Amino acid sequence: MRKVLFAVAVAALPAAALIDVRVPAAHRAGLALQPGAFDALAGIALATAGMVVLGRFPRHALGRLMSVFGAWWALDGLASSWLAYSTLEGLPGDSAAFLIYQRFGAGLLLLLPLLLLLFPEGRLPTGRWRAVSYVSLGLTSLLPLALVAAPSRIAQATSEPGPIPAALRSVDLDLLYLPLPDEVWTVVLRVAQLCVPLSLVAPFVVVVRRYRASAGLDRARLRWLVWAGVVDLMVMLTFRLLPGSWTAIGLTVGVVLTAAAVAVGVVRPDLVDVDRLLGGTVVYALLLALTFVLDLVVLGSAGQYLGSRLNDGERLVIAVFAVAIGYAQLRHRLQRLVRRWVVGDRDDPYHVVSGLAERLEATDDSEAQLLTLARTVRRAFRTSYVGVEITDALLVEDGERPAETRALPIAYRGERVGRLVLPARVTRPTSGDERLLADVIRQAAAAARAVHLAEELQRGRERIVSAVEDERRRLRRELHDGLGPTLAAVAARIDMARITARRSGDDADQILGQARQELTGLLAEVRRLVHGLRPPALDDVGLVGAIRQLAPDLTMRVEEHGDLTGLPAAVEVAAYRIAAEAVTNVRRHARATTCTVTLIRADGVLNVEITDDGVGLGTATTTGVGLVSMRERAAELGGTCEIAPMEPRGTRVLTSLPARDEVTV
């Protein structure tokens, strides 16, 4: 069906053009008819747009609508051409041509409200707005229906006062009409004419509501419709200033551009950057209007103050000179303002990046920095939502989160520190937008990294304070519950021995022996506490010697590379504890015959590697407390601890700790 409609529209153009060339311009002007070829060309544009839409979406209502109206418009143009030619040559078919063109052609008024109500998805709005849409379409239909049924003389009197053209007086203009009183038809036609502009209010409101509620792909599609509206307004204003013969050309241009915009908006809204296209169109539309106003002002002022001393050519030169001077200033300022309104701040990348850096420097709070970043990106790219998400689940949002989003990674020196969450858009960004977004993401990476480090520092401080307090609690408990009561008991036994010594030396000696045993146990407890604070072997034989003493029953080889003297005390303790835990695991679980511990110090880093030839880590091996403690000890100093199986068997524990020389004061 669509191919048939397209073929009808295409066939109407050459037929109308051949007829138009045979009709003198004076005869056509007497009938107030424009060349029908222009209408046929507009019909082809509509039918082509319908074919494009139906080719992508075979059941789309807009595609069918434009195909039908395209064939209708082309036939209307052909009827207009035949009406002019048949009245000139006295050929048959003039009454039918008049009926098609003048009566049925009024139905083309329905195209605009239908287009507004169905764009872009091809469905009428839901809820109460659907009922309003039906009412609007009913109001629009009043005039076409009235023109079909009303007598031609009444229709002529209400639309264009004056007599019917002489060339039409011999034509039967009322093949279809209802015989009602003239007063009734006059009222009906007046009311119907008033209803046409009123009927367009609801479709425009529907478009505005859809635009405000849209995002991503739908927003891009609706901007194509907005662009078509701006272009149509420019075309109408421009051709209004030209002679009447140009009106048909202006209408054709408007229809062609609108049909193209609708087809692109439905099928390929990302074909070009519609935001930039709309911004540039608005700029030139305003320039056109302002230039026209300035031209009138200059010409009027020159005529008022200089009077007859200037002829028309001199006034025109003054007007052109004034407009040329004002044009450059207006164009630059309007382009900047309109593009910022349509495109956003991204039209001035330097302003976006420098403003973001300045606001980040003035903000100390980490969450406020992320909110500043989100607002800057949202303002720059004119988007409805921006979220900045840090890897530790800190999310700062600006705007209402849409159902569909896309995330851009934020990386700092190769490390991913977060995500920039934006609404899902289909329009392709330009290379300039991509560069600006990359610059903003770099700023975001620095801000996110600062926030991440601040959070890590705070958590580190909390862990340190908690560890110190836990250690203090442990020492207090050990001293209070262990050493305190033992020392009190020893003191009591000594007092008892002193009293008993006066009566019996043997009893006193026995009591002192018990006190001696308790003191021995007390010394062992003190050694245990001291060992818990720092293994004594580290001070006695050094790190390498202390590790060698860990497993006398295991064949263990300890290798050292680099200068291990002057290591920070915390690094020595961490390396020893990690090695001790790893060797203990080898003894208990690995069933290994040999174990090798390698200590390498280079470039301010101490690497501790423990390998064995045991059974290795199985797939079902769970992470125990010992493995977790090794990783935590390394992380506390800013290091890493990796535990992995070896090939063909065994386990490898590699720990890297920052180990710069300890500074003594």
From TrEMBL:
InterPro entries: HATPase_C_sf (IPR036890), HATPase_dom (IPR003594), Sensor_HK_TwoCompSys (IPR050482), Sig_transdc_His_kin_sub3_dim/P (IPR011712)
Domain of life: Bacteria
Membrane-traversing stretches: 38-57, 69-88, 100-119, 131-150, 184-208, 220-239, 245-266, 278-301
Record Pfam families: HATPase_c (PF02518), HisKA_3 (PF07730)
Gene3D superfamilies with a match to the protein in the record: 1.20.5.1930, Histidine kinase-like ATPase, C-terminal domain
Domain Histidine kinase/HSP90-like ATPase span(s) in chain numbering: 570-661
Assigned GO CC terms: membrane
Keywords attached to this entry: Kinase, Membrane, Transferase, Transmembrane, Transmembrane helix, Two-component regulatory system
GO molecular function: phosphorelay sensor kinase activity; protein dimerization activity
PANTHER family: NITRATE/NITRITE SENSOR PROTEIN NARX-RELATED
Name of the protein: Sensor histidine kinase
